[in-house]
Amino acid sequence: MQEPVIGIDLGTTNSAVATVEDGRPRLIPSRAGGRLTPSVVGLNRNGDRVVGQAAQVLAEEQPDAVVWATKRFLGRRYTPELMQQARSLVPYPVVAGPTGDVRVKLAGRVLPITQVSAMILGELKLDAQAHFGREVHKCVITVPANFDDNQRNATREAAGIAGLEVVRLVNEPTAAALAYGLSRGFEGSALVFDLGGGTFDVSILDVKNGVFEVRATGGDHSLGGEDFDQRIVQWLLAQVDDSYRDAVSRDPTSLRRLKVAAEAAKRELTEFAEATISVTGLGDHAGSRRFTDVETALTRDFFEALSEPLSRRCLEVCQSVMAEARMDPRTVDVVLLVGGMTRVPLVRRLVADFFGRQPSTDVHPDEAVALGAAVQADELVRQSGQALLLDVASQSLGVGVLGGRVKRLIAKNTGVPVVARDIFFPGTAGQSEARIPVYQGESEFQDENHKLGEVVLKNLHVAARGETPLEVVFELSSEGILAVKATELTTGNMEAVRLEARPSLPHGEVEKLGAEQASYAQEQGVVDAQRAAEMFRKLLERGEKLSRLLQRSAQENPSPEAEAAVGNVQRLLEGGRTALDAGDTAQCARIARQLTQLLSGRSESRG
């Protein structure tokens, strides 16, 4: 039996895992019972990890032991500017790692952001294994279209720690379009407006004969639902009594309560014109223990006024992407809304006004990306040719040259995979080493772009300036990951080069974290197997009751259909008992899904 390949949406606010069964993509439910897993990680008083819903519960008691929205910092280099940005977004401390990576403090421990992501991915892997009753190792993971090279590599690194092999990274808007296009037989131009918890992407795709070709993409990696929440949080802080405000703004427990209240109000305003906000116990929980409350109401109109700068940034991205695609907004055939923030009436109204049409509501904003990842995973396994993805470079790539400028080798929206090369010369005579900085971004100036790292070429042939040509080759993969090599053309010597500024973890630490994750997964797997066996026994008992009911019905109203229904249930029950006795967890899982479907009296809900 072929090993399953799952699709994963590693989100800022929520994450999801999906698969394709009976030709249809569907979400795999979490072991906690939900369709989505909150992207929240914590350490309880015993030092044990908790992920998802359990971490959200822990946050109410120990807000300093929980972190969330960490995707914002994945693959980023630690800088003073990033630290200031983090302080305005989250109450937990953000610190620098030994390689310049970003780490967080919680419950007295310092964890790399990559490890936090690996914990979430590991939980999704366990959910998938519980669903299939067998090991799962391979996956397709989605990333924001505007993720840079470092962020994509960090995603792969996190997956490796979680014990997952990434078959392919897929841009989130492309995955959403894939889920929509294949499920509805759509052909034409589709624009995906993806406003999630931490990032914003816009992509335009041409869909024809199963080919999904990206024409243009753009976005803002610092714009998402968390920013809209923070607008409300700052407004609430302004209403705290002056004598308490400083203490509240520094207290993790108080900030967590304000964040929860802000998010709840935002959700309520999706349906109602006004939301009542009541937050108690605000103050200094660690020191003076003096507390105050905030009681107020937030109207939809005022929330939209608070959010106006953010919504304006959304429209600026739309305008930029449409210009790059050389299209008029009103010529797009369908606009797909993806991400939880697209439920907000303000966002839907802005989109409708800009594109001159109501956006499609045929895709589930929280689930479409995971479902598209599952479709791509299934296609990579079966290689049916049903779907071909042709993506583009989300940002330009170039080399830093004299004068503080950047020479572009790969332009934004160039089709990938792509190879580009150029010749450079050492800056001074007699150099034995050359350091060539690599930049990602759209400006012609180095200090206005994002530095990915430096190509380091050593043992150069000493010569006068201009007599040592160096060929630099960029190879950008279909999933947006950059490889660089350099050759000294006078000698033909090729150096193995690397981007030294990539903030990846030290090799020894990666191995240690991977072993720690594997140990946790093994222990949790035993607990999950015991729980699954007990639940399966109860399911068989319910199946026995259904069998007796169907038998009685068949006796009272004989028909071939009734007899077939009785036989089907009895075969499942017999197979289930045999599988349980033999310890065949994969067979138990398959029968459990079929029995659950019969007991519900309907087909499984579509993802």
Descriptive notes:
The chain is α+β, with helices and mostly antiparallel strands and 607 residues long. The protein has four domains: 5-223 and 315-390, ATPase, nucleotide binding domain (Nucleotidyltransferase, domain 5, 2-Layer Sandwich); 225-306, ATPase, substrate binding domain, subdomain 4 (Actin, Chain A, domain 4, Alpha-Beta Complex); 397-495, Sandwich (Substrate Binding Domain Of DNAk, Chain A, domain 1), CATH 2.60.34.10; 507-600. 41% of the residues lie in helices and 26% in strands. The protein has 15 helices and 27 strands. The strands form seven sheets. Strands 1, 2, 3, 4, 11 and 12 form a six-stranded mixed β-sheet that branches. Strand 9 and strand 10 (109-112) form a beta hairpin. Helix 13 packs antiparallel against helix 14 (560-582). The longest helix has 50 residues, at 507-556. The radius of gyration is 27 Å and the shape is globular.
